[in-house]
Amino acid sequence: MSSGLETLNVHLAKAQPSTTYQMMDRVAARRASGAAVISLSAGEPDFDTPKHVCEAAIDAIRAGHTRYTPVSGIRSLREAVAEKFRTENNLDVQWQDTMVCNGGKHVIYNALAATLNEGDEVIVPAPYWVSYPEMVQMVGARPIIVSCGSDSNFKLTPELLRRAITTRTRWLILNSPSNPTGAVYTREDLSALAEVLLEHPHVLVLSDDIYEHLVFDGATFHTIASVEPRLQPQTLTMNGVSKAYAMTGWRIGFGTGPRWLLDAMEKLQGQQTSAASSISQHAALAALTGPRDFIRTTRAVFERRRNMMVEALNTTPGLSCQKPGGAFYAFASCAALIGRVTPAGIVLKSDEDVAIALLNEADVGVVHGSAFGLGPFIRIAYALDEVSLAKACDAIRNFCQSVR
Ligand code: GLU
To answer: Atom 3 (ligand 1): residue with closest C-alpha?
Structure first.
């Protein structure tokens, strides 16, 4: 008889582990067995954190900034965050309207955990980043997945939004540029969604802007609370330094929203993790207040890689891909590979089979689209140098040509 020792929280038990991490682990395991895998699975910039940011962290240690900080972050960083939201996003924000958390994920989790009750609904447009529905699920609420296919460029439309809203809806999660599709919502897209949202003041909006600076083709980034300022009281706009400044390991995310929400998130964080690392906060301050050339340079590099990847994918038999407007992901349909047989004799029944076969037979790590709520696709993170990308493209092409 079971002692019950291993009984888990019922909501956690139902949630899935993070597929992006699972794929990174599979890549690591295959590398450990001696294979030279090129990983296009991890969604993180391949650049080093800028030198002046690292120096600021070292200075912070030397200056003794090694103790607890206020739960919502040090005043100077919150001021810099407020200034960022004012100048880059045209939002009306004072430092008291901001909060710093242990990474972007933590901002989102805090907000959901602070507000959701059993039976509450959260609208999650699919394809979605793997963690949104699971976080909703983990706090006992219901993710309402709204499928947004390639015909709407993988974007939520006002009609789909209107149909998904019920009296139980508490949040809508928006993510632009999107992980996993790279789709970018234009000002017009957001304004049309805002019109629907204004009719439903009981719905909060979580705008995940973490890929803000990676928008290509000369396009301008927009966030919903600045497109429609009347939405600001019901919007949590979140961002962080991970993607813009290649600081994924530093774990600094931040957000701005109504004070009642930030107070609740602070209460939660104060009982849970306390503030983010004091040293990382000083590093983030240097990133936000320092030179901007890193952002410009990396954007240009990612745009070049995007062009290269899309061209390669669209000339590979069995794959096809829309041109993503931002982030560092390509989301390619692999529908034409389903039902085929690999050289190792594996029948490709799903996009997950395609991803696993690419890893085992082509030594390329990608993540299957169904993990993001839409198959059969594969997500390719092109956050890697161009030589490695070219090798990966060749390996993918050879694999696709060899399936029967
Ligand atoms: N956001 C990245 C990705 O989608 C990092 C991994 C994660 O947190 O899911 O790959």
So the answer is: 43
Cα of 257 from ligand 1 centre, angstroms? 24
Q: Give yes or no for residue 20 CB within 6 A of ligand 1.
A: yes
Give me ligand 1 centre to Cα 18, in Å: 8
Written as six digits, the tokens of 376 are: 């059969």
CB-side neighbour CA atoms (13 Å) of 163: 10
* pLDDT less than 70: residues of the chain: 1
Residues 6+ apart with CB under 8 A from 298: 45, 47, 213, 214, 246
Does the beta carbon of 18 sit less than 6 angstroms from any atom of ligand 1?
yes
Which residues lie closer than 8 Å to 401 by C-beta, 6 or more apart? 317
Residue ranges of the chain assigned to CATH 3.90.1150.10: 10-48+294-402
Look at domain 51-289 and name its CATH class. alpha beta
Of 199, 262, 261, give the one whose Cα is nearest residue 230.
199
Probe target for ligand 1 pocket from 22, 25, 131, 372, with the most ligand atoms within 8 Å of CB: 131
The β-bridge relationship of strands 329-333 and 235-240 is: unpaired
Give CATH 3.40.640.10 domain extents, the chain: 51-289
CA of 366 to the centre of ligand 1 (A): 12
> Could you tell me the CA-to-CA distances from 138 to 159, 161, 178, 268 in Å, in that order?
28, 23, 22, 15
Q: What percent of the chain has pLDDT over 70?
A: 100
**Helix (H) and strand (E) counts for the chain?**
14, 13
pTM above 0.90, yes or no: yes
pLDDT digits (tens, 9 = 90+) for 100-140: 999 999 999 999 999 999 999 999 999 999 999 999 999 99
CATH assignment of 10-48+294-402? 3.90.1150.10
Pocket of ligand 1 contains residue 104 by CB under 6 Å: no
Ligand 1 center to 382 CA (angstroms): 13
Atom number, ligand 1, closest to the C-alpha of residue 19: 9
